[in-house]
């Protein structure tokens, strides 16, 4: 038995609409390569900026960032790299993720082709996992972006 629900709420009905996801990164160039070259995203904006508003948001003076907007799979991703204080991704054990948002999923028409492309580009995809026992079977594999965000590539309806 499936517990799927249908969401027909439109922005007009709820007053809320997704604008974009925010992704803090340690290396903007590697992030652009992953999302644009690896997943076919389109780089819409790439700039550096300073602002008193950024100082207030980050809670320190002199904040300088490089930010991009990348559109991929119908989602707009806003990347932010702090240039005044360099941050690096702390490696965790495979699939050990903190509570909270830890990934994003993209549906693909040909999972095998997507997996082969990721492998040929050296992106270290996981094996393909199959959930054939489900009423609506799905297959998936995972990638990690340069800062450890789990990216699920899925074939099938969930």
Would you mind describing this structure in some detail?
- The chain is of the alpha/beta class and 158 residues long.
- It has two domains: 20-88, 2,3-Dihydroxybiphenyl 1,2-Dioxygenase, domain 1; 102-158, 2,3-Dihydroxybiphenyl 1,2-Dioxygenase, domain 1, CATH 3.10.180.
- It is built from four helices and eight strands.
- The protein has a four-stranded mixed β-sheet with strand order 1-4-3-2. A four-stranded mixed β-sheet has the order 5-8-7-6, covered by helices on one side.
- The protein is globular, with a radius of gyration of 18 Å.
- The two termini are 13 Å apart.
- The model has no long low-confidence stretch (mean pLDDT 89).
Percent helix: 10-25%
Do you know the CATH architecture of the largest domain? Roll
H/E element sequence: HEHEHEEEHEEE
Radius of gyration: 18 Å
The chain-level structural class is alpha/beta
CATH homologous group name of the largest domain: 2,3-Dihydroxybiphenyl 1,2-Dioxygenase, domain 1
CATH class of the largest domain: Alpha Beta
Mean pLDDT: 89
Report how far apart the termini are. Answer: 13 Å
- Strand fraction: 25-35%
Poorly predicted ranges? none
């Amino acid at each position: 038995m499936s517990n799927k629900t249908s969401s027909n709420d439109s922005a007009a009905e709820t007053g809320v609409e997704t604008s974009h996801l925010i992704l803090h990164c340690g290396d903007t160039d590697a992030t652009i390569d992953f999302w644009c070259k690896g997943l076919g995203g389109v780089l819409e904006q790439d700039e550096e900026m300073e602002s008193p508003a950024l100082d207030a948001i980050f809670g320190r003076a002199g904040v300088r960032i490089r930010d991009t907007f990348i559109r991929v799979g119908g989602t707009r991703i806003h990347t932010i790299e702090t240039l005044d204080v360099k941050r690096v991704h702390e490696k965790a054990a495979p699939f050990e993720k903190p509570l909270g948002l830890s990934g994003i999923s993209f549906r693909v028409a040909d999972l095998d082709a997507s997996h082969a492309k990721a492998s040929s580009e050296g992106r270290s995809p996981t094996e393909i996992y199959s959930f054939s026992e489900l009423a609506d079977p799905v297959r998936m594999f995972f990638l990690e972006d340069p800062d450890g965000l789990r990216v699920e590539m899925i074939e099938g309806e969930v």
